[in-house]
Design a protein that fits this description.
- This protein has 190 residues and is an alpha/beta fold.
- Helix content is 24%, strand content 22%.
- The chain has two domains: 42 residues, no CATH class; 134 residues, Alpha/beta knot, CATH 3.40.1280.10.
- The strands form two sheets. Strands 5-4-3-7-6-8 form a six-stranded parallel sheet. The chain has a two-stranded antiparallel ribbon with strand order 1-2.
């Protein structure tokens, strides 16, 4: 069995196709049941956020990172990371399903590196304001690590803290689910 792949010859940009065996595809793809096509590309540089953003603060699971990037792109938000999983890892790319190429992605070393014109919104498991009280205008919504959430020192420095109000018997949502819900509320407002 062979698979078709599209490639381009750098720097001329000449498109072409090659056929590879299933064995080669398995070695390139890194999954047990790879699907064609496989792409090789140069990683884009960071693009600073130009609109409201999700800030992934130490989100460690690459699947959650990819899902959050996908949700951000869906709802018109950019993405900023602080530590955590590599946004360009294969698992993050699979979970992002192409969204990496539809939103700005950058990283920061400190909270102070976020755009100064964005209201800082911390997400907390309890005792935060409801989502409909997220400030109008440009916001930077901080999503914390899966197990620990945001550090108290970071929450204290934010302009507002919000909590997703549920009606069930579960304590909290995972980072990707919570961030996706919040993205649906704060995105598409511009």
């Amino acid at each position: 069995m062979t698979f078709e792949a599209v490639y381009s010859i750098e720097p001329m940009g000449i498109p072409g196709e090659i056929s590879i065996s299933e064995e080669v595809l398995k070695r390139l793809a890194g999954t047990r049941s790879p699907q064609s096509p496989v792409a090789v590309f140069r990683l884009p540089g960071e693009t600073p956020p130009a609109r409201s953003m999700l800030v992934l603060w130490q989100v460690a699971d690459p699947g959650n990172v990819g899902t959050l990037i996908r949700s951000a792109a869906m709802f018109g938000l950019d993405v900023v990371t602080h530590g955590g999983a590599d946004v360009w890892s294969p698992k993050a790319l699979r979970a992002g399903a192409g969204a990496h190429f539809h939103t700005a992605i950058s990283s920061v070393d400190r909270l102070e590196d976020l755009p100064h014109d964005a209201a800082l919104v911390a997400t907390v498991v309890s005792d935060g304001l409801p989502l409909d009280e997220v400030p109008d205008g440009r916001v930077a919504v901080l999503i914390g690590a899966e197990a620990q959430g945001l550090p108290d020192t970071i929450v204290d420095r934010c302009d507002v803290a919000v909590t997703i109000q549920g009606c069930g018997d579960v304590e909290s949502l995972n980072a990707a689910a919570a961030g996706s819900i919040i993205a649906s509320v704060v995105g598409c407002r511009d």
